[in-house]
Design a protein that fits this description.
The structure is a homodimer.
Chain A lengths: L10 H12 L4 E3 L6 E3 L8 E8 L10 E2 L4 E7 L5 H11 L5 E6 L2 H13 L4 E6 L19 H14 L4 H13 L1 E7 L19 E4 L10 E4 L3 H15 L7 E8 L5 H17 L3 E8 L9 E8 L2 H8 L3 E2 L5
Parallel strand pairs in A: 3-5, 3-6, 6-7, 11-12
Antiparallel strand pairs in A: 1-2, 2-5, 4-14, 8-9, 8-13, 9-10, 11-13
Helix pairs in contact in A: 2-3, 4-5, 4-8, 6-7
């Protein structure tokens, strides 16, 4: 295992310390590193809290800041945060307007956020994301997995909360964005969880995993590596089929790197995916390309498509100032 | 070779098309993809132009925009842009205030930018960056290599040019920033240039290359992988020794990923490097952490330190709006 670390046990703590120090103008680390919260809390707004296993950086701590999350709870690598982390984060940033939990659909995350919501005494609601069309059931989830589309939910609901939207409406908006969003990923290499010390799975020199999960979970099938155009075509088709083949309209196209894929290849994949969407009659009116929802050092990428309307587009465009996303 | 591409020959063109489409609000691709320029040129200001081999993304095209570069010329992967690319970029964005070329110190880049400067008919000056302390001479350069510190030069001079600084002063400022900046890199894996198809170099399962260049050029020595703390300590020591052991003052600490290293590890390295600098009496008053000056999918990182003063800090803090750097 080749990693820039001191020890497996202290890796997450040291990385969080570095993150908090590098972005001290935006975030503060909570006691015992249980959560990362905004330095300047948004007074009377609904507080957005997300979290999950670490190893997907910048998700979620990198999205804490104006226009997006109020706090994020980092679990150990690929391990859910504990209920007490979530309760403490909610207590720290929640006010009268209440707390909205944004949870990726994995068994551990759902259970721990549910337990936290029961213990937390203020008003709270939950949005569960499940944008991954690859598989209906996985080793980590009942039902579809929540993956890169979670960023889109956090950005759009974050903007709405910043503008004063109430808790019930924020939850409905999050559910709506999730319902309009689909993702699928492909892996060219595995990743190595530090505590395990060996690759999560193995791929042959010419193989790729189509439909891979963000923890290296199996996808739809293991096949020979093909051209970017063929890969993008299969991914976009899977997404559009699941969206009932929309024939027109504006979409957000988000090409996300898994951590080990250079920008050069991500923009090339974006170029292929964009042309395929446009041939199908859709207009790519908003774009995001980069490594935002990663799987440690895994090579590969995911494609996410969100069906936009004027309201969602305006929220997407609204000011955001976090460590990883800014406009 | 596992890459998300269609063919080696069209890879760069397709990636540039994707980049220009994804950031159409900020950049425009020049004819025959010879350069990337700002969509909204800065009327009467000094025009900043950089460029170099591709494969280091987001450098340089990702830094085109308000407060930074006016144009960037992408060569083929790890290959200098041609003089005619540079001349056409200068002609497209240069005005009465003149053009400043920012060139990383590699033999091919220096030669081609020099030839372009001779052909270009407007007023022009050149800043050559050579911040890499690893080696005095390399397979690609006479004298020290220009690496991640180039970003710092582009950001600070970009802010000054935006404020109306004249050509001579911009060139002097660039030289000053370069003189106050040092970098060194470490590689955990090689990268594969697509046209070559095989890794540029090979490292054993426990080896790292200390002082590696951004094209995978050899560094100071090949040694066994050690802890992040020991690696950061050797890197920071090399930098501070070369800066004549400054005993106090503010510094910018920039931890840069080479393309295959996750954010989790970069922030951990930042945390180590920051503590070492502070123990030495320096104040890390500005920070940047991310994969900004890459070597395709190479795993590893570089550390860059710039000695700041009030003037440089103010230029660093000024508004910047590019594809890859925004505040």
């Amino acid at each position: 295992m080749k990693k820039l670390i001191n020890s497996v046990d202290t890796m997450l703590a040291e990385s969080l310390d570095g993150f908090a120090a590098a972005h001290a103008d935006i975030v503060v680390l909570g006691p015992e590193r249980k959560f990362v919260r905004r330095r300047s809390p948004g007074s009377a707004k609904v507080a957005l809290i997300s979290g999950g296993g670490s190893g997907h950086e910048p998700l979620h701590a990198g999205f804490v800041g104006t226009g997006m999350l109020d706090a994020a709870c980092p679990g150990q690598i690929f391990t859910s945060p504990t209920p007490d982390q979530i309760v403490e984060a909610a207590t720290a940033v929640g006010g009268k307007a209440g707390v909205l939990f944004i949870v990726k659909n994995y068994a551990g995350d759902c259970m721990n956020f549910e337990m936290a919501a029961e213990v937390f005494e203020g008003p709270a609601a939950t949005v569960v994301t499940n944008d991954d069309v690859a598989v209906e059931k996985s080793t980590h989830s009942t039902g579809r997995r929540g993956v890169a589309g979670t960023l889109v939910v956090e950005k759009i609901v974050g903007a709405a909360a910043e503008k004063g939207m109430d808790l019930k409406s924020c939850a409905e908006l999050g559910t709506e964005v999730n319902a309009r969003t689909r993702s699928i990923g492909v892996a060219l290499t595995s990743c190595t969880v530090p505590a395990a010390g060996t690759p999560t799975f193995t791929l042959g020199a010419d193989e790729m995993e189509m439909g891979v999960g963000i923890h290296g979970e199996p996808g739809r099938r293991r096949v020979n590596l093909s051209s970017a155009e063929i890969i993008a075509s299969e991914m976009v088709n899977a997404i559009l089929t699941d969206l009932d083949h929309p024939a027109s309209g504006d979409v957000l196209l988000f090409v996300n790197g898994f951590g080990g894929t250079p920008a050069l290849e991500l923009y090339l994949m974006y170029n292929s995916a964009r042309r395929i969407l446009e041939k199908r009659g859709l207009v790519v009116s908003r774009s995001l390309v980069g490594s935002y929802v990663t799987s440690l050092e895994m090579a590969g990428c995911s494609i996410t498509v969100t069906l936009l309307d004027a309201k969602l587009t305006a929220f997407w465009d609204d000011h955001v100032h976090t460590a990883a996303l800014r406009w």
